[in-house]
From TrEMBL:
GO terms for biological process: carbohydrate catabolic process. Keywords: Glycosidase, Hydrolase. GO terms for molecular function: 6-phospho-beta-glucosidase activity. It is an enzyme of class 3 (hydrolase). This is 6-phospho-beta-glucosidase. Pfam families: Glyco_hydro_1. Transmembrane segments: none annotated. InterPro entries: GH (IPR017853), GH_1_N_CS (IPR033132), Glyco_hydro_1 (IPR001360), Glyco_hydro_1_AS (IPR018120). The gene is bglA. SUPFAM superfamilies: (Trans)glycosidases.
Length: 458
């Protein structure tokens, strides 16, 4: 079975990794603006001058050029995020910042002029700094209302122009990177799980609002997908893998089934955690999503006894001895993508959307291009497995390659970890012209899209 007619091929980005212009046109500070780099350091009081995200790749001023390049590749869809602090600089205002809305008007109109469907993430590891400092981030129930106001504002403003929406990027990553996903400077498990509950309620309420504003809106959750294999056939290892997978499944189960699963409630009981859940919360959670989107980069093994961790195992897991790894230690597992697609389809019976996948590598610009055959090989092998999943009967809406244009890395805050089909002349020290160059993979992906996947090799 080939890729279906209307399959949405494209690329994905995040506002804080491409836009720059961190203080232009009334934008307020976000947590990303004050991170000194990476995902494990504490948030500072103000912008850090070494933060590459303050300028990023200057998409804010170069969006027309970049969207023209996406159109040249034949993109059917482009995933972007709206920076909350561009629309509500502090996060708790009653009225939006008109200049912020106007910027996204220009971007979305430019996409539509090129017949590219916008896929918009409402919260992509980004929260107005004021909400983190004054309210404690998602530990505070008041953030649900602030998020609803933000979401309703953009739903109404872009009605008829944007129909595909994601509520929170990689919502399950709050378990591993709370400073990004939950914006909390705490290690208290009670606070962590209360923040998770508030995000899940906010996501459900916003899903309802989206459908009220426009019945044709399609709302998805977004999960960090990482299949977990038992390290050995020992039943204890098999259970260790399932138990770890449950942490990720919880978020999809709530989004798709509208209630907390029993295994999650048991985990809370045994940890002595009692969540503040109102009866209205339980009603709100029943507003389930239209589709499930996810990122996929790697798989890991789990063991009941082995605690080995590799350099790329940022969120747990034991390295798989059968797999090679990228330059950043992320183990390369194309078949794992087919496994995730089948697993999620069987579990939730919701259409799936692969909204992040790609290879971060150190590219070398030579004579105005990059011979990134390693990226072509990686993507071909993963997309071939998407084709296998389609033949398995899985409903897949589309595929947006992560970092379709080089951007600042979220996890390492550097430019040298490049994912794009388009090379951006910027270096880790901030130097460079910001000029764009087409890589070899640019033309490869263009052919894949034009052929609707027929040029992929098994």
């Amino acid at each position: 079975m080939g890729f279906p007619e209307g399959f949405l091929w494209g690329g994905a980005t995040a506002a804080n990794q491409i836009e720059g212009a961190y203080a232009e046109d009334g934008k307020g500070l976000s947590v990303q603006d004050v991170l000194p780099g990476g995902v494990v350091k504490p948030v500072s009081a103000g912008p850090t001058p070494d933060n590459l995200k303050l300028e990023a790749i200057d998409f804010y001023h170069r969006y027309q050029e970049d969207i023209a390049l996406f159109a040249e590749m034949g993109f059917k869809v482009f995933r972007l995020s709206i920076a909350w602090s561009r629309i509500f600089p502090r996060g708790d205002e009653a009225e939006p910042n008109a200049a912020g809305l106007a910027f996204y008007d220009r971007v979305i109109d430019e996409l539509l002029a090129h017949n590219i469907v916008p896929l918009v993430t409402l919260s992509h590891y980004e929260l107005p700094l004021h909400l983190a400092q004054e309210y404690g981030g998602w530990t505070n129930r008041k953030l649900i209302g602030f998020y609803e106001n933000f979401a309703r504002t953009v739903f109404e403003h872009f009605r008829g122009r944007v129909q595909y929406w994601l509520t929170f990027n990689e919502i399950n990553s709050i378990l591993h990177f709370p400073i990004l996903a939950g914006i909390m400077n705490t290690t208290d498990k009670q606070d962590l799980y209360q923040a998770i509950h508030h995000e899940l309620v906010a996501s459900a309420r916003v899903t309802k609002i989206a459908h009220e504003v426009d019945a044709t809106n399609k709302i998805g959750c977004m999960i960090l997908a990482m299949p977990r294999y038992p390290l050995t056939p020992n039943p204890d290892d098999v259970w260790a893998a399932l138990d770890a997978a449950h942490d990720d499944f919880t978020f999809g189960d709530v989004h798709c089934r509208g209630t907390y699963p029993g295994y999650f409630l048991r985990k809370l009981r045994e940890a002595g955690i009692e969540l503040d859940i109102t009866e209205q919360d339980r009603i709100d959670l029943r507003n389930t999503v239209d589709f499930v989107s996810f990122s996929y980069y790697m798989s890991v093994c789990e063991s009941a006894t082995d605690t080995t961790r590799g350099p790329g195992n940022l969120i747990g897991g034991v390295p798989n001895p059968t797999l090679a790894a990228s330059q950043w230690g992320w183990q390369i597992d194309p078949v794992g993508l087919r496994i995730v697609l089948n697993e999620y389809w069987d579990r939730w019976q919701k259409p799936l959307f692969i909204v992040e996948n790609g290879l971060g590598a150190r590219d070398e610009l030579v004579d105005g291009t990059v011979a990134d055959d390693y990226r072509i090989s990686y993507m071909n092998d993963h997309l071939a497995q998407v084709g296998e999943a389609l033949s398995d009967g899985v409903a897949v809406l589309g595929y947006t390659s992560w970092g379709c244009i080089d951007l600042v890395s979220m996890s390492t805050a550097e430019m040298s970890k490049r994912y794009g089909f388009i090379y951006v002349d910027r270096n880790d020290d901030g130097s460079g012209t910001l000029q764009r160059y087409r890589k070899k993979s640019f033309y490869w992906y263009k052919d894949v899209i034009a052929s609707n996947g027929a040029t992929l090799t098994p």
